[in-house]
Amino acid sequence: MTHIQVNTANRKALKKTNILYWILTGLFAFVMAGSAIPNIMVNPMSVQGFHEMGYPTYIIPFLGWAKLLGVVAILVPGFPRLKEWAYAGLIFDLLGATYSVANSGKELVQWAPIFIFVALGFGSYYAYHKKRKAMALQNLTTTQHDFQQNGPAQVA
Question: Three-state DSSP class for 109?
Answer without folding.
Answer: helix
